[in-house]
Amino acid sequence: MISLDNSNLDILHLKEEIKSKIKHTYLNKHIPKPVIDEEKLILLSAMINNRAMSAFHKERYIVTTMLVQIALDTHETVPVSDDGENKERKITKQLKVLAGDYYSGLYYLLLSDIEDIALTHHLAAAIKEINEYKMKLYYKEINSFDDYIYIRHKIESLLITRVAEFLNEDAMKLIAEEWTLIQMLLGEKLKINNEEPFFEMGINQYKNNPSPSLLIEMKLKDSMLRVRGLLEKNTGHPAFLKKHIDKALAEQSDYITFCAEEG
Fold first, then answer.
1. Pick the residue with more confidence: 138 or 185?
2. Phi, psi (rounded to 5 degrees) for 2
3. Which residues contact 80 (CB under 8 A, 6 or more apart)?
4. Which end of the chain is flanked by fewer CB atoms within 10 Å, N or C?
């Protein structure tokens, strides 16, 4: 559980607000409850924390963006193929599609409360771009593991970075890019360590190549260096963000090793 001190918009309160919006008795009974990406929630809160707007508008911006993220994540859990599926699995698949659409619809409803057409267009453009990158993975339009990492990062980061652009938060955009990259790389490292199947990623040809693990380690160290530099250089971000990232990095063996190497 993440708890942040001195944040204008309490993370735990925001999580409860999001949970209340996505609560659906029938869906929750038949499919897993959607996961709220706390790291992205923290980034959004940091971006909007110092904006000159009401608490109501701040909360709406964060909650609506997170609903879009949840919708995208839910759709991503839908299996691509129907082959060999029994009736129960097919129903679960259909419900996941409907759930993703339901969460998407909620964000339009909430945005109508603040009448922000510009943000709606910005989020819609981000969704379109994310889906285009997902199609590249689906049709295996990648030539290397580097390509795969680049596309996966775009899918994970675009929604948050487009919000940063909309808010003219250039420094926070850079921090968000690095932090989402670190989170994504840690996830990919876990997949490799657990020897999870790569067929759905479109990178069968790279699975037996030792370079993916090495590439991830190198990219992690580079990104850790960049995010540390950005946090030290840009002092306008909320203090709770630096505190959270410093603590999270300190818990990673990659970061400990990296610091030791840096002296």
1. 185
2. -95, 130
3. 138, 200
4. C
**Backbone φ, ψ for residue 51 (5° rounding):** -75, 150
Query: What radius of gyration, in Å, describes the C-alpha atoms of the chain?
Result: 19
Distance CA 152, CA 239 (A): 29
- Count CB atoms within 10 A of the CB of residue 29: 8
Instruction: Give the separation between CA 10 and CA 8, rounded to whole angstroms.
Output: 6
Alpha-carbon distance of 66 to 141, in angstroms, equals 28
The DSSP secondary structure of the chain, one letter per residue, reads ----TT-SS-HHHHHHHHHHHH--HHHHHHSPPPPP-HHHHHHHHHHHHT-SS-HHHHHHHHHHHHHHHHHHHHHHTS-S--TT--HHHHHHHHHHHHHHHHHHHHHHHHHHHHT-HHHHHHHHHHHHHHHHHHHHHHTT--SSHHHHHHHHHHHHHHHHHHHHHHTT-HHHHHHHHHHHHHHHHHHHHHHHHTT---GGGT-GGGTT-SHHHHHHHHHHHHHHHHHHHHHHH-TTS-HHHHHHHHHHHHT-HHHHHHHHHH-
Residues 6+ apart with CB under 8 A from 191: 198
Maximum Cα–Cα distance across the chain: 58
pLDDT in tens, 25-62: 445 655 567 889 999 999 999 999 878 888 888 998 89
Q: Work out the angle between the directed axes of helices 55-76 and 117-138 (0-180°, nearest 10).
A: 20
Q: How many CA atoms lie within 13 A of 102 on its CB side?
A: 16
pLDDT tens digits, one per residue of 213-256: 788 888 999 999 999 999 999 888 888 999 999 999 988 865 55
